[in-house]
Amino acid sequence: MPLCFLSVRPPPPPLITCHVSPTAVHPPPSASAPPQVPAALPSLSLSPSSTPPPPPLTCALHCPHFESCSGCTHEFNLHRPVIVDEATEFFKTVGVSDFTFDSCKLWGWRCRAKLAIRGSPENPLIGLYQEGTHNVVDIPQCKVHHPSINAAVELLKQGITELRVEPYDEDEGTGDLRYVQMAVTTHNTSLPASERYKNGKVQVALVWNSRNENSPNTEKLQALANFIWRNGGPRSTVNLIHSVWANFQTSSNNIIFGNRWRHLLGERDFWEHVGGIDISLAPSSFGQANTRAFDTLLRKLQKYVPQGASVADLSVRCIEINKESKVSFEKTVDRLPNSVECSISWHLADTSKDPLSWIMGSDVLVVDPPRKGLDASLVDALRSIASAKRKAKSSSDSSSSRGKDEKRPWMLRAKEASVQIGSEITSEDSKSWPQTLIYISCGWESFKEDCKDLLSSKAWHLEKAHGYNFFPGTQSIEVLAVFKRGQGSPKKKRTGIKQKKRL
Ligand SMILES: C[S@@+](CC[C@H](N)C(=O)[O-])C[C@H]1O[C@@H](n2cnc3c(N)ncnc32)[C@H](O)[C@@H]1O
Predict the structure, then answer these.
(1) Cross-sheet strand order for the sheet of 3-8
(2) Is residue 388 situated within a structural domain?
(3) What pTM, to 2 d.p., does this model score?
(4) Which of 302, 333, 334, 473 has the fewest CB neighbours in a 10 Å radius?
């Protein structure tokens, strides 16, 4: 999981300086007609004591593919998945009684989709698998897709039929086109801010069943890319395609992407604007599907990074296992505002290996693991932080800290596979241990386990928790949880004693 380590000397600065404009608030759509252009709902902050609003039909999915497609599991109350009640209760049991839940767009929120392509040239099917099968359900009117994705899928279908491109046949391993990834950028600064989302442009990545661009069937790939660009690119009337990429994959397993990528047409760089900064995203790197909700989460996250007047003393280390994300990182850093003068480094590493060495030297840790949660070794390292601190102190007393730092694995790895922007992390920084752990989670079940493990060690307590409606139509939520070192305020303990006495 990518980790972000922030080392801050007082006065503590903000990670990113940004100006927050209020979320656009539109009235909810009418019950009978779900919007073609997605509406936004007011951001709902639900305190656990407030009664949830009645189930409005205005928050229903109204999707013709519901039940046949496996993408959405819940049709009603998109604004407040039932799991929010469970989360509210869970957080109460671990000391947080003011869990909040924010909802954003309920339709048209998905700005990234990976879709399987099956069927025939005359009748291509582009969509998700039916639950428990490998039958692809065609979802041309998907209600959670950004409308530009549905339009680009339609264009792709026309191209497949016109050029007689063979969709992949999983049983035989034949056919040319296996998957498509559609990613929407809503970052068009030439448009007024209010027009940008609905005019999002699509980066199309075609997953082609060949080893590389020199294989015999790739003429059709280029022809298909040209078709998409001619009919959907900037010179077309629809003007909705940002770029076309190819990925080459011949493996018979379920892994969507192969290792080889080629940029074919359009702009190479793909930018999005979240959390107050521009971020570059390659088709090969992970990107959040719900751009708007992610922006809301990031703006909240910034509040938990110590604030201050200057950013000069901030150092940030980003750890990623996916080497492809290095280029995106560099481009993103190049575009950071000049006012951000901190030291930022990117490290290619697996945080499950020697995690303690990554944790050392940081005041704030940000973890954003995949759905399965944190690796057990990282949880163990976070649990054992108090005893590790004692050990480190005694060994640094007996030898020079600079000498020790140079032997530390992250320093060595940093030389081999990292990008460092700004000044080196000093030995003074490296001696510090995290006081704050910010955990972003898309896997509720794994989060609960990790949270219980961290709290039972008594090395951490939970200070705040927020939920975000990242995946309306499902029972998944994104959680932002803020842990602090130690066992929390004595006030809570005293309350517990009093209650015991009263009993
Ligand atoms: C949920 S994504 C979050 C990415 C990023 N924070 C964002 O929002 O765009 C999880 C990321 O963890 C990375 N990852 C998975 N396992 C890892 C590990 N053991 N060490 C480092 N990174 C890992 C993946 O490559 C992926 O980019």
Answers:
(1) 100-102, 460-468, 478-485, 436-441, 364-367, 3-8, 314-320, 343-348, 418-421
(2) no
(3) 0.82
(4) 334
